[in-house]
Amino acid sequence: MLILFLIIYLYASLSSASVDVLFNSFTSNQLIFTGDATIDSSTIKLTKNVNNFSLGRAFYPYPIIGSNNSTIPSFSTSFVFSILPQRKTTPEFGLAFVISTSAIPPGDLLAGQYFGILSTKHSVAPILVVEFDTGQNPELDDNNDNHVGIDLNSPISVVKHEAGFYDGDEFKPVKLSSGKNIQAWIEFDGKELGINVTIAPVGTSKPLKPLLSYYDGVIAKYVSPSMLVGFSAGKTIWNETQRILAWSLADKGAPRQINTSDLPIILPESSPSSSSSSSISSGLIVGIAIICVAALLFISLSGLYWFKLRKKRGDKSDEVEGWEIDYWPHRFSYEELARATNQFSDDEILGRGGSGKVFKGLIQANNIFIAVKSINRDSKQGLREFMSEISTIGRLQHKNVVPLRGWCKEGQEMLLVYDYMPNGSLYSWIFSNSKTLSWHRRLMILTDIAEGLNYLHHGWLQLVLHRDIKSSNILLDSDLCAKLGDFGLAKLYIHGQAPTPTRLVGTIGYMAPELVKAGPTMGSDIFSFGVVVLEVVCGRKPTEMHSEYALALVDWVRKLHRDGRLSEAPDLRIAREEYEVADMERVLELGLACCDDVPELRPDMKEVVTLLMNLKTKYTSELQGVDCSDFGDFSTISNLSVTSDYGPRT
Ligand SMILES: *[C@@H]1O[C@H](CO)[C@@H](O)[C@H](O)[C@H]1NC(C)=O
Ligand SMILES: *[C@@H]1O[C@H](CO)[C@@H](O)[C@H](O)[C@H]1NC(C)=O
Ligand SMILES: *[C@@H]1O[C@H](CO)[C@@H](O)[C@H](O)[C@H]1NC(C)=O
Ligand SMILES: *[C@@H]1O[C@H](CO)[C@@H](O)[C@H](O)[C@H]1NC(C)=O
Ligand SMILES: *[C@@H]1O[C@H](CO)[C@@H](O)[C@H](O)[C@H]1NC(C)=O
Ligand SMILES: *[C@@H]1O[C@H](CO)[C@@H](O)[C@H](O)[C@H]1NC(C)=O
Is the Cβ atom of 365 under 6 angstroms away from ligand 1? Predict the structure, then answer.
């Protein structure tokens, strides 16, 4: 009888085992570590400084369990973390708090990206992630490079907010990647299905108002009556140290208080005084320079508006004439664009870019379809990108550059209007299961991009560096002719003058290795173009990690080339009889040459155009396919001087 009682008692206490733990420091046997996560001076260090990818996770080994197997439990937790990139100028990554059904959740699909746990491509598992994101990922609609967000099984957050805390009603921003210790509090309410996230610098008591509060029944799909919690982080080639210094977790009531007074403080390696003063002054200089340039641009643009406004008031005809829409980027009114896009309806969203959403619209008067890009108002970068697009693409005209039809700036709204490209992005074609591009079509598309880039580099009064060439920024019109789009990061330079190094921007997987040190050059655009060539021919993403090709795409093709197995590289969906192996190999070799580690050894865009033109012509004459060179003929290099015909009309 007693034994039975004991068993029942034990069973009851086990099944309702509650979690209430506090780690003021860590040892290796307390948690489940996977990947590169280790203990380093009694803190958890999630990734390792290596020359390639790294990802790591640390999970509490026991699940948090609901009172029966259909109740989702509640819990609250607090932890102290610090994030420190090795260099200030390189891309940053951040870390994530994860709720999962497993202590070793799957999802190492995208080497080192998305906190080493999420994927844009697959649903890895039902997971809920609180991201402390220090990198801006243009693909994911991230509003800035320092935010906290909640993700449901996708790196696109359902809610997010600039990192910081509320002191009463006043919002105070906090820089996540300063290396300083930051405390976070998370309350998960399994009954009402909600989650609150609060952060503050260590030493500040817990703010009353949470930074993020997300209550939605949909959470039920991503959590379970038995859930495991832990941390995850990843990095690509650039190094970043993501640490957890202390952690408390409880499934009933508040978590135990972390004593933050003697946690280690990990700051940049160089001596604190000199590094901070120099970084502040260089940061200040860069900041002031940017503000000056933006202000100058703004003044000149607003001068233009003012001039236009006065002109408009003078002659009453305010209406936009048909020819005006056809020929000249002009200013649209907000009402006009709201009407065209059905009041910016969600149904009209074509995509989300680095800087904002893109809507499809119809200008009824002319029956013209347009794409309207709204620039994020709250991003500091927004105005800069808006200006950048108007000042570059607004003045460029070339058959392989997406035409800018106009812009609108009213109050906080910044909108850019382009021709609508019915066939979407090249990315959506290469990685689609339903659509396949033939060899000949791929060759035509690559030639188009090469011509567009050649125009930017050599064809216009000023040198234009695009700085973000990638397949998702290349758009296809109704005839599948490719055009370069998204000039949000583009910069203008005087020909012959060396571009000055600027903030490191671009997209991981497409960035030339020397970018960190040397800044943007024609060579770095050519490198990105080379990656696109390999992507188009191989049908593979630049940073995919599969057992078979664990290397970045460039290294993988390079290795095949060294081993004399280049013929294994092309996309299997291109029918073998469509191409001659020697031609396919020439295109791959061209891609590899563009991706040479040594910038001086990369070919010039003029040479690239010639080679691709010749190949394209060979297949075109055999196949009599559609050609989209109705705008101009670029068949030989000597014709290149003609390009000024497509320059700005003044
Ligand atoms: C990174 O490099 C190390 C050492 O060269 C190697 O052992 C490891 O497999 C590499 N990791 C990946 C993901 O390529
Ligand atoms: C689980 O427990 C909740 C209350 O804790 C109760 O409402 C529910 O009916 C229980 N479900 C089952 C299947 O026992
Ligand atoms: C709880 O789970 C067990 C094992 O999966 C199952 O046998 C039992 O029917 C479940 N109970 C309820 C109330 O759903
Ligand atoms: C989350 O925050 C909201 C708003 O401050 C509050 O009403 C709610 O009780 C909080 N939830 C939890 C679980 O603490
Ligand atoms: C990352 O750290 C490793 C090891 O210290 C180093 O070899 C590598 O160059 C670093 N990567 C970068 C991009 O600085
Ligand atoms: C925190 O730790 C320090 C040093 O170990 C100790 O002096 C202090 O009393 C502790 N504070 C609390 C609130 O326990």
Answer: no
User: Is the distance from CB of 532 to CB of 471 less than 8 angstroms?
Assistant: yes
The domains found in the chain, sorted by start residue, are 2-250 (2.60.120.200), 326-419 (3.30.200.20), 426-639 (1.10.510.10)
Burial code (b: 16+ CB inside 10 Å, e: under 16) for 353-376 equals bbbbbbbbbbbeeeebebbbbbbb
C-beta 285 within 6 A of ligand 1: no
Pairing state between β 64-65 and 159-162:
unpaired
Among candidate residues 108, 131, 304, the one with its CA nearest the CA of residue 211 = 131
Please state the atom number of ligand 6 nearest to the C-alpha of residue 259. 1
Which residues line the pocket of ligand 4, CB cutoff 6 A?
187, 189, 194, 196, 209-210, 213
Q: How many Å apart are CA 212 and CA 313, to the nearest integer?
A: 47
Candidates 432, 442, 428; CA nearest to 588 is: 442
Q: Cα 550 from chain centroid?
A: 21
For ligand 5, mutation pick of 50, 235, 241 (most atoms within 8 Å of CB) = 50
* Residue 129 pLDDT class (50, 70, 90 cuts): very high
- Mean pLDDT across the stretch 208-234? 92
Q: Give nearest CA residue, ligand 1 atom 2.
A: 52
Question: Whose structure tokens read 């921007």?
Answer: 505
CB 549 less than 6 A from any atom of ligand 1: no
C-alpha span between 528 and 507 (Å, rounded): 9
With a CB cutoff of 8 Å and minimum separation 6, the contacts of 638 are none
Query: Residue 211 above 90 pLDDT?
Result: yes
Per the listing, tokens 């050894």 go with 601
Cα 66 to averaged position of ligand 2 atoms, centre (Å): 10
3-state secondary structure of 115: helix
Tell whether residue 357 is among the known ligand binding residues. Answer: no
Closest ligand to Cα 77:
4
The tokens describing 188, both together, are: 């998960």
pLDDT digits (tens, 9 = 90+) for 49-63: 888 888 889 999 888
Taking residue 551's Cβ as centre, other Cβ atoms within 10 Å add up to 16
Span 494-547, pLDDT tens digits: 777 766 666 667 777 788 888 877 788 899 999 999 999 999 999 988 876 554
Q: How far is CA 8 from CA 2, 44, 64, 68, 238, in A?
A: 10, 38, 21, 16, 54
261 lines ligand 5 (CB under 6 A): no
Cβ atoms 297, 385 nearer than 8 A? no
Can you tell me the distance from the alpha carbon of 605 to that of 526, in angstroms, rounded to the nearest whole number? 7
Phi, psi of 331 (to 5 degrees): -85, 130
Cβ contact 405:370 at 8 Å: yes
pLDDT band at 550 (very low <50, low <70, confident <90, very high): low
Query: Catalytic positions, please?
Result: 468
Strand ranges in 338-391 using DSSP code E only, listed in sequence order? 349-352, 357-363, 368-374
- Residue 89 tokens, joined: 């100028």
pTM: 0.51
For the chain, report the end-to-end CA distance as a whole number of angstroms. Answer: 99
CB distance 238 to ligand 5 below 6 Å: yes
